[in-house]
Amino acid sequence: MSKITGSEAVIKCLLEEQIDIIYGYPGGAIMPVYDELYKYQDKIHHVLTRHEQGATHSAQGFARISGKVGVAIATSGPGATNLVTGLADAQIDSTPMVCITGQVSSHLLGSDAFQETDIIGISTPITKWNYQITKASEIPEIFAKAFYIAKSGRPGPVLIDITKDAQFEKIDFSYKKTEGIRSYTAVPKININDIELAADLINSAKKPLIVWGQGVILGNAENELIKFVEKSGIPAAWTILGASAIPTNHPLNVGMLGMHGNYAPNILTNECDVLIAIGMRFDDRVTGDVNRYAKQAKIIHFEIDPAEVNKNIEVDIAVLGDAKQTLSEILRITKKNSHKKWHQKFKDLYEIEYQKVIHNDLNPIKDGLTMGEVMKEINIQTKGDAAIVSDVGQHQMIACRYSNFNKTKSNITSGGLGTMGFALPAAIGAKMACPEREVVAVIGDGGYQMTIQELGTVFQTKAAVKIVVLNNDFLGMVRQWQQLFFDKRYASTEMLNPDFVKIAEGYYLKARRVTKREDLANAVEEMIKSKEPYFLEVVVEKEANVFPMIPTGCSVSEIRLS
Amino acid sequence: MNKELIKYTVSVYTENSVGLLNRISAIFQKRHINIESFNSSITEIENVQRWTILVFTTETLIKKIVGQINRQIEVIQAYFHTDEETIYQESCLFKIKSSLLFDDRKIQNIIKESNAIIVTVNPEFFVIEKSGRTHELDELYEKLNKYGILQYVRSARIAVTKTPLLISDILTNFKKK
User: Fold this and answer.
1) Which of A420, A544, B11, B97 counts the most CB atoms within 10 A of its CB?
2) Average pLDDT in the A529-558 region?
3) CB-closest option in A125, A184, A306 to B26
């Protein structure tokens, strides 16, 4: 067998892991790998983003819509540090991602060489695992380990840093996929006793509530969840990362939890007698004040990561394991039920929310356009089949609240980290992973400008993403908080914005601006019918607020409608 | 929630890997917990390291922290124990002026009674070593400090647990799979 360079070994590792698309940005310390990417361009499509942060978010969008591992690549120093936000985002949202960085030659390590940065030290708290390769012979084993760690158990980001000399060094290449690591239990063993205890509680509950999260999607357990919900008749609510695992219009889907979630599931969290948490981690945005969260209820937690159990909320029964397996087990011994009276409570509270909030959001009569009516038009035009990609803030809450999701893996948003600038590059990654799906990025004017340069990537790749900027000339969510909690002192939240249409046109994208209600439906239709990327700016009401809302420090049952 | 600070000995069995310490210390750092002492050593199992970390924290927090330590890829298993659940030793060195040894006979009695070992004596200074439980070291320090100590250093705690830890079983079970 002839020897190959470390750089070629990197490419061969990616091919062994069935990677055919990666996102990145070249530079000095990673040039040998780019040279091999050039030679292997028929096998691996390298997407040149306009900033390394964009590469990570594209890899995340790719991973979130496909369930596969996303790969990003960058050079040392600033290239590596620009990956930090994406790594942190992927870590907190459990996204499988492998990042590859170049590093100065091993004899220069620690000498403050040009573009040297301790990316291992920097990325340690925001990666599931990381490793610095200084010898080419380490490449096959470390890559195999990296992909195994990134996608197994609770997924997460892995960073591999490769010194330049290791990229040049020659080795005999052979690859063996990792099947296990002795110090790492990816999926805890199911304890049947816990399943039985949980089933007893569930079967005897009078007012049970299911709260599910992304664990259901990451574990491919959507069907199991739907069967469990339908058999048990238990109302089920979702965290924003859990959205779309059960279709929006499913009768037992009672809506979104948390700070800007739906009225009924928040209020009734504090009335249920058994709370069944599945693949979620009781984030503070979901629980509100933890000391007043579901205190009356017995809590069951289905969870793959033992460190999440009792972290934020003390639970009565923890069912450890992969959601697909634990839900299949519980399904067998769950008794059929309908909980009709209990359901009526959700319907009654929904009606209140509809009258006070939803109706006005979706069918406004006053002048300014609402974010809600834009989402309504998108639902109509996409028939609920689109993947909706959002950043963080008001537009995100509206997108999550009002999108109709027919298919799973359709809500791609920065949940845990709340990263502005996530949506545009994530949408590019999502569209490239699933070209057959409609991908609509819904972004605020603030976040859009944090990664606006990725329009260049859209232009170059022709990825047919649909970009909707909901422009209120404000950092809307911060402004809303300033209005409610800081006596309307709008400190640095008003934005003087450029002509977004001209900017999009500068990248040769089809672009349109809507300022009037009568043009909205037509513009959204034109956008969705377009086979090419399309930019749509919708000028929305400047000082609109997102309700319902659980103010910080309040209990979920103190949710406000205005 | 019980907020009482308790002294915990955290024992972490790990793969011998560069950078893991950074990961573990970050878990304590995020929650503003100071590491009182830290020891890394080889163990009864080849290529497995044992870290012994001493911290003051609450029962609620130590459970969460050890859970998060266990989650790290290269951690084989982590445990936490109270003083009562472990057999532990710490050791320390005192450097003291030699003149004191002869000027005041009491100091010789202190050394004898404490079961400390004289490591070296020269005309300028002598060094004694004492191993034992925390309070025994503290007591000797108090007694000698009255005479003046030139240098004092204390090692990290090492501890074994009264109950078995079964690390070999974890590793054997992995091999069987």
Assistant:
1) B11
2) 97
3) A125
CB A470 within 8 A of CB A540: yes
**Per the CB < 8 Å rule, is A311 touching B174?**
no
ipTM of the complex: 0.91
pLDDT digits (tens, 9 = 90+) for A539-549: 999 999 999 99
| Chain A residue numbers touching B74 (CB-CB < 8 A) | 129, 183-184
Are A340 and A224 found together in one domain? yes
In a domain, residue A546? The reply is no
Contact (Cβ atoms closer than 8 angstroms) between residue A25 and residue A79: yes
Q: Are residues A164 and A228 in the same domain?
A: no
Query: Would you say residue A479 lies in a domain?
Result: yes
Helix (H, G, I), strand (E, B) or coil at A433: helix
Pairing of β A157-163 and β A97-103: parallel
> Model confidence over B27-52: pLDDT tens digits?
999 999 999 999 999 999 999 999 99
Q: Are residues A211 and A84 in the same domain?
A: no
Q: Is B47 on the interface with A (CB under 8 A)?
A: no
Q: Are residues A289 and A407 located together in one domain of the fold?
A: no
Cis-peptide, bond into residue A265, ω within 30° of zero: no
Rounded to a whole number of angstroms, the distance from the CA of A146 to the nearest CA of chain B is: 11
Chain B contact for A307, CB < 8 A?
A: yes
Q: Which two tokens stand for residue B166?
A: 């079964």
Question: pLDDT of A55-91, one tens digit each?
Answer: 999 999 999 999 999 999 999 999 999 999 999 999 9
By the 8 A CB rule, do A413 and A430 touch?
Answer: no
Q: What is the span of the domain harbouring residue A531?
A: 368-539
pTM for the predicted model, two decimal places = 0.96
User: Shortest CA distance to A550 belongs to which of A261, A240, A238?
Assistant: A261
Residue A1: band (very low, low, confident or very high) from pLDDT cuts 50, 70, 90: low
Same domain, A374 and A259: no
**Residue B110, amino acid:** I
Measured between CA atoms, the residue of chain A closest to residue B21 is A124
Contacts of B71 in chain A (CB under 8 A): 305-307
Q: Are A440 and A395 in contact (CB under 8 A)?
A: no
Residue of A121, A128, A132 with shortest CB distance to B73? A128
- pLDDT bin (cut points 50, 70, 90) of residue B175 is confident
- pLDDT category, B1, cuts 50, 70, 90? low
Q: Does A120 touch chain B (CB under 8 A)?
A: yes
Residues A120, A166: one domain? yes
Cα–Cα dist A228/A231, whole Å:
5
CATH, residue A515: 3.40.50.970
Number of domains in chain A: 3
| pLDDT tens track for A460-518 | 999 999 999 999 999 999 999 999 999 999 999 999 999 999 999 999 999 999 999 99
User: What integer pLDDT is reported at residue B169 of this predicted model?
Assistant: 87
- How distant, in Å, are the alpha carbons of A70, A186, A395, B69 from that of A64? 9, 19, 20, 27
List, as ranges, residues 89-128 from B with C-beta within 8 Å of A. none
Distance from CA of B87 to the nearest CA of A (A): 26
Q: Which CATH number covers residue A338?
A: 3.40.50.1220
Task: Kindly state whether residues A518 and A411 are assigned to the same domain.
Answer: yes
Residue A119 falls inside a structural domain = yes
Q: Which residues of B touch A309 (CB under 8 A)?
A: 67
Give the residue from B16, B24, B48, B73 with the most A CB atoms within 10 Å of its CB, the best one to mutate: B73
The reply to whether A166 and A18 lie within a common domain is: yes
In chain B the domains, ranked by start, together with CATH numbers, are: 6-86 (3.30.70.260), 88-154 (3.30.70.1150)
